[in-house]
Design goal:
Strand content of chain B: over 45%
Oligomer: heterodimer
Helix content of chain A: under 10%
Order of helices and strands of chain A: EEEEEEEEEEEE
Distance between the termini of chain A: 41 Å
Radius of gyration of chain A: 13 Å
Number of strands of chain B: 11
Strand content of chain A: over 45%
Helix content of chain B: under 10%
Radius of gyration of chain B: 13 Å
Number of helices of chain B: 0
Order of helices and strands of chain B: EEEEEEEEEEE
Largest sheet of chain B: 7 strands, mixed
Shape of chain A: globular
Largest interface: A-B, 20 and 21 residues
Number of strands of chain A: 12
Number of helices of chain A: 0
Structural class of chain A: mainly beta
């Protein structure tokens, strides 16, 4: 069974600081990888996804993530965070040809102005 | 486009009663809908996957007789929590995949169920 680990459960940063949120998964085959974001009071939205090709994926709002197959990782990064990035971030994995997506526990990011 | 709504957003019911939660894709046809449950400080746990016109596929440990799922049309799926108990109190979230886009899910805003 696939599983997803997010190492940081709660991150507090000052504006303009750089962000990296860790995500590791356990599945040896072909995977599709996602980062979702949930802003306060809003529903989950897709931030970016990886299916194939360039392992460095760029998403909305200046976020990017890098798929490192050898490390089973898909870390999320942003060079300079803003107060509006305060949200909860979920890493998710879909394996093989299955529809099921497994989510990590989520990381709450708080950006202090 | 790709908006998913849920109704109601919050519901409080008495123990032993049943509650129905609706999930609608407002501007697209959803061949597949997913129902998740989220406990406080925990991740989304997939409960079941439903394809329009066929029976839902439940995840291990989810009671299909307790959590009835109906996906009667390409824009509507319902989750009925039957004989609800306080331990069923949770946040229920649905998502939907568009026809031809099986990889991407669009999430609803969720429904907070409280069973007293």
């Amino acid at each position: 069974a696939q599983s997803v680990s997010q190492h940081n459960h709660h991150v507090i940063l000052s504006e303009a600081a750089s962000l990296e949120l860790g995500c590791n998964y356990s599945y040896g085959g072909t995977v599709n990888l996602f980062w979702y974001v949930q802003y306060p009071g809003q529903h989950l939205q897709l931030l970016l996804k990886y299916f194939s090709g360039d392992p460095l994926v760029k998403g909305i709002k200046g976020f990017e993530a890098e798929f490192i197959k050898s490390k089973f990782s898909f870390n999320l990064r942003k060079p300079s965070v803003q107060w509006s990035d305060t949200a909860e971030y979920f890493c998710a994995v879909r394996s093989g040809g299955y529809q099921k997506v497994t989510f990590g526990i989520g990381t709450k990011l708080q950006v202090i102005p | 486009g790709a908006v998913v709504s849920q109704h109601p957003s919050r519901v409080i019911c008495k123990s032993g009663t049943s509650v129905k939660i609706e999930c609608r894709s407002l501007d697209f046809q959803a061949t597949t809908m997913f129902w998740y449950r989220q406990f406080p400080k925990q991740s989304l746990m997939l409960m079941a996957t439903s394809n329009e016109g066929s029976k839902a596929t439940y995840e291990q440990g989810v009671e299909k007789d307790k959590f009835l799922i109906n996906h009667a049309s390409l824009t509507l799926s319902t989750l009925t929590v039957t004989s609800a108990h306080p331990e069923d109190s949770s946040f229920y979230i649905c998502s939907a995949s568009r026809q031809g886009e099986s990889y991407e899910q669009y999430f609803g805003p969720g429904t907070r169920l409280t069973v007293t």
